[in-house]
Amino acid sequence: MNPDEAGTVFTTPAAYADDASFHQACAVLRREDPVHLVSQDPLFAPFWAITKHADIMEIEAKPNLFTNAPFPVLGNIESQDHARAQGDMLRTLIHMDDPDHRVIREVTAEWFLPRNLEKLQSRLAGLAATTVDGMFDLGGRCDFARDVAMNFPLSVINGILGLPESDFGRMLMLTQELFGSADPEMQRGTTMEDLQKVIMEFFVYFGELTAARRATPTDDLASVIANATIDGRLLNDLELISYYVIIATAGHDTTSSAIAGGLQALIEHPDQLQRLRDEPGLIPKAVDEMIRWTTPVKHFMRTAQEDYVLRGRSIAKGDWLLLSYPSGNRDEDVFTDPFTFDAGRSPNKHLAFGFGVHFCLGAMLARMEMKALFAELIPRLDDIALAGEPALMQTLFVGGHKRLPIQYSMHR
Ligand code: HEM
């Protein structure tokens, strides 16, 4: 495979569903052309694929030089033309740069600080126990991706936003339609209008939530967002909806992908599962290794605001760059045996949560959720094996398992 062939993986949703060949392509790029111009696909504007860990960090460390605006996520030319003509349907933290980004991030930054999240510890442990009980009740066979991994982070997010349990199913569908929209099994339709309909449903739903929390504030995250002020004014409709959508979506499919992929890694590496049974104190390290291993966020894009030379390549002002987190997380120059799943890996300087001013706001929460779930699950599992072929989502952005059939024996 030459670098031009390898570079096609970034514009091919099905390529992300074949983990081994995806990583093979990235290894070719890291070795032969780590700053590689992808320009063959007529559907997409050209972009530089950045595949080395050090280069991703270098770019993320310069947010004024490499901005998230105007297009932080890889979309085809049609979707870009649409956005230019119609304006942004949403403007979330990932669409922003400073100074707006800093101001909007501050609205919830404190809520996501460890000292506040600590308060959730017992609630997470309770939710984890209920989730694992549910798995026990399924009687030794389930699709772990659908039956367990997708529901647990959704319950957490919906819980912190303060949504009623009766709305969980609706939220699950909407977030999957928004994020999994490159996979034929998950998308509502294929047109921009279909996507707009999904976003409109978010608008209606969260508009009602804002009104309720302004009338009667509670201690949930929705109340923080609904009642926040910037320069003495409440957030406007677009700011509000964008905030809810980024929290609801960013905190959901990402974590469920890491959970399902993490479990598959333990099934395929029974020595590592046994290691965690013997030494539960390693679970926090194992969680980070699961996140590195799966890297559920496949990329973010940046736009160069000045000419820049990276690894000898001339990036021109206005060029678009794709930061490939899965590739950075298998970089041979940073990780010892990067293709080995090592539940006790230390250090583990993975980039799955990004780096710099946009570093994942929910990283601590995601880690807490996963620790709570695996700390509950691992000691109760007597035996576990695959019961069919796992399947990954087709995606260009966020993804992981859509199916993980397993059989297991466990105790209460
Ligand atoms: C394993 C789970 C998760 C992964 C892999 C992940 C990954 C990421 C990545 C790669 C970024 C962009 C970082 C950058 O540009 O440098 C990001 C941003 C973000 N994440 Fe996460 N995330 C996860 C879970 C969560 C959770 C649980 C929440 C919240 C409840 C969350 C909320 C956010 C938000 C709000 C941003 C935007 C931050 C900004 O632009 O300032 N994420 N995440």
Structure report:
With 412 residues, the protein is of the alpha+beta class. The protein has a single domain, classed as Cytochrome P450 (Cytochrome p450). It has helices at residues 3-7, 13-16, 19-32, 53-60, 77-86, 100-109, 114-117, 121-137, 144-149, 151-161, 168-179, 192-215, 221-227, 237-250, 253-268, 270-278, 283-294, 325-328, 363-380, and strands at residues 35-38, 47-50, 66-67, 141-143, 229-230, 233-234, 299-304, 308-310, 313-315, 320-324, 381-386, 391-392, 401-403, 405-410. α8 (121-137) crosses α19 and α12 (192-215) packs across α13. The longest helix is centred in the middle third of the chain and has 24 residues, at 192-215. 40% of the residues are buried. The structure holds protoporphyrin IX containing FE.
Q: Any idea what the radius of gyration is?
A: 21 Å
Average predicted local confidence, pLDDT: 94
CATH homologous superfamily caption: Cytochrome P450
Structural class: alpha+beta
- Bin the helical content: 40-55%
Label the overall shape. Answer: globular
Strand proportion? 5-15%
Mind describing the biggest β-sheet? 5 strands, mixed
Look up the CATH topology.
Cytochrome p450
Count of separate structural domains: 1
Number of helices: 19
Strand order of the largest sheet: 1-2-10-7-3
- Euclidean distance between termini CA atoms: 50 Å
Return residue spans where pLDDT drops below 50 for at least 5 consecutive residues.
none
What is the top-level CATH class?
Mainly Alpha
Tell me how many strands there are.
14
Bound compounds:
protoporphyrin IX containing FE
* CATH architectural category: Orthogonal Bundle
